[in-house]
Structures are given as structure tokens and as C-alpha cells.
Amino acid sequence: MDIETLLYERSESKCELCGMAEGLGVYEVPPRSTKSADDSILVCETCHEQIEDPKKMEVPHWRCLNDSMWSQVPGVQVMAWRLLTRLKGEGWPQDLLDMLYLDEKTLAWAQATGEGEAADPTLKYVDCNGVELAAGDTITVIKDLDVKGTSFTAKRGTAVRGISLVTGNHEQIEGRVKGQQIVILTKFVKKSK
């Protein structure tokens, strides 16, 4: 039996990431190249295009990872981890990553392409006191901040839990205030203990 037939059987003729049933094709999960069903997944054209070109990623499409990340297929787990890592600046993917468990071998495979590594390892996110910030930290706002595009102010002393780092801009973080995801300048926050 060829790989494609095995994948169609395994996936019940649906994309293993989003569940679509049209435009399906075999995707070999890099960097493995044993050309086996274990190293490949069945994906639709939409998923394939967005995997190959991160600039074309449509964030709402990837809400499907909430379900597919629980797959028992290592290739699907690897792609879910990579895509969630790529999108973690959006906030919700970080929550899913926190729940996703990969064994050591699968995690090493997921990390093998360098997905999730900082583009500039010298880029540090620091608060107003020079303390380094990391994704998931809790911070406190140190001055009243008018939130653009809304009618509220983030008051001094507001605690923001589970922050995200804005990719490529070490002066900005994201966090949820009054149920809304906002961007905050690092110079106006201090890390909470």
C-alpha cells in the first residue's frame, strides 16, 4: 500500500490539521525524509499554502489546532506545535502550547527546523527596571495608559497575567486587560514576582 492510501485511511479522507475534505495532498513533515506514513500527514491546499508561506497565514483558520493538536500521530503533533509556536504572539496559541505535551523525541523533531527560536538571540524584553520579561510572565502597569481604539484606560497598578512578547519589537508586549488583548510598551510595566 502506498503512503497516500495509508494517509487517506488514517485520516478518514480529511485534512489532519483542519478537517477539510477537499484538495488533499501528502505533506512530508521536515526534516525527516524516510518517505513513510509516519513522517507524513495529509493536508488540504489551504493548510499547505500557509505552512509553506508564513506571510499568508490566516490566524482564524488555525483555531482548528485546538482539536488536531490532540492527535496521536507524531507528524500531526509536530506540525501543531510548529504552527502554534509560529502564532503564539496572538495570545490564544500560547495557551494551547502550554497544554500540548510532546515526548522528547517528538519535541526534538518539532524543534529541528528552528521554529520558535528568536530571530535575534540578543533581543531582550525588559521592564522599566531593566528586569528581563518572558512570555507568560505577570506584569504590573506603572502609569495610567489610554488604550487606543477603546474607551478605557489601563489604570496604574493593573496586573496583566500571561503576557506575550511582540515578535521583532522588544519594546512591546501583549496582554489582556478588561477582556481585551492590548499592546503595552515595556517601559510602562514592571515584572511582578
How would you describe this structure to a colleague?
The protein is an alpha+beta fold. It is built from six helices and ten strands. The chain has helices at 3-11, 45-52, 65-68, 74-87, 92-99, 104-111, and strands at residues 24-28, 40-44, 139-141, 145-146, 153-154, 159-160, 164-165, 172-177, 180-185, 189-191. Strands 6-3-10 form a three-stranded antiparallel β-sheet, with no helix packed on it. Strands 7-8-9 form a three-stranded antiparallel β-sheet, with no helix packed on it. It has a two-stranded antiparallel ribbon with strand order 1-2.
How is the largest sheet built, in terms of strand order? Answer: 6-3-10
Q: Poorly predicted ranges (pLDDT <50, ≥5 residues)?
A: none
* Number of helices in the DSSP assignment: 6
Distance between the termini: 57 Å
* Largest sheet report: 3 strands, antiparallel
Strand content: 15-25%
Mean pLDDT: 88
What is the number of beta strands? 10
Task: Give the CA-based shape.
Answer: elongated
The structure class reads alpha+beta
SSE pattern, N- to C-terminal: HEEHHHHHEEEEEEEE
Q: Report the helical percentage.
A: 25-40%
